[in-house]
Design a protein that fits this description.
184 residues; alpha/beta; Rossmann fold; 6-stranded mixed β-sheet; 3-stranded antiparallel β-sheet; 3 helices; globular; binds inosinic acid; binds magnesium ion
Length: 184
């Protein structure tokens, strides 16, 4: 018999109000660091979409906004995973400061790829803001300059984060629970 694993929504780890508060704090840090500088803020689709649109509404630095999408193929946890752009940014980064906005940094492989690619475009600086930093699962060294929340384990969904394209619409962040559907 093939084993089927079903998922269900678990407990709230970060509430709507906690997220709202944290987004304001991060925006204040970004405003302070980039005051008077030319900044491009890049949303990593699709997971960071909600976080990005909430965050930029609190920015006072008059940034330019752009969007990127990266996809990875192959074993998710292996070093052989190939990462590529499925949608590149459209703005020039030359001589500008760049801030990448991502949903979650896990192994770090996607962001290592993106940071390296964008650094090669002669930006003045490239920094990373991530709503969730799952630092315990890191496989390559990637520093999150503006972390929203830190977690050390578990799979989280909601507020943009998905499991197989579902749960992105939730206004809060929840753990995903797993159960073996054969156990009845
Ligand atoms: P990384 O390359 O392993 O750092 O992770 C890249 C991507 O995997 C993230 O941008 C997410 O799209 C996805 N991911 C990793 N952990 C989670 C999670 O707990 N919930 C939802 N998506 C995740
Ligand atoms: Mg992602």
């Amino acid at each position: 018999m093939t084993e089927r694993i079903n998922e269900s929504l678990g407990r709230v780890v970060f509430s709507e109000e906690q997220i709202r508060q944290r987004v304001r704090e991060i925006a204040a840090d970004i405003n302070a660091l980039y005051a008077g500088k030319s900044l491009v803020v890049i949303c990593v689709l699709k997971g960071a979409a909600m976080f990005f649109t909430d965050l930029v509404r609190h920015l006072t630095v008059r940034p330019e906004l752009d969007f990127v999408r990266v996809a990875s193929y192959g074993n998710d946890t292996s070093a052989t995973r190939a990462i590529s752009f499925t949608k590149d940014i459209e703005l020039s980064l030359q001589g500008k400061h760049v801030l990448i906005v991502e949903d979650i940094v896990d192994t770090g492989r996607s962001m290592e790829f993106l940071l390296r690619q964008l650094e090669a475009r002669r930006a003045k600086s490239v920094r990373l803001c991530a709503l969730v930093d799952n630092h315990e699962r890191r496989e390559v060294e990637v520093n999150v300059d503006f972390p929203g929340f830190r977690i050390s384990d578990g799979f989280v969904v909601g507020y943009g984060l998905d499991y197989a394209e579902r749960y992105r619409e939730l206004p809060e962040i929840r753990l995903l629970d797993w159960q073996d559907s054969n156990k009845e």
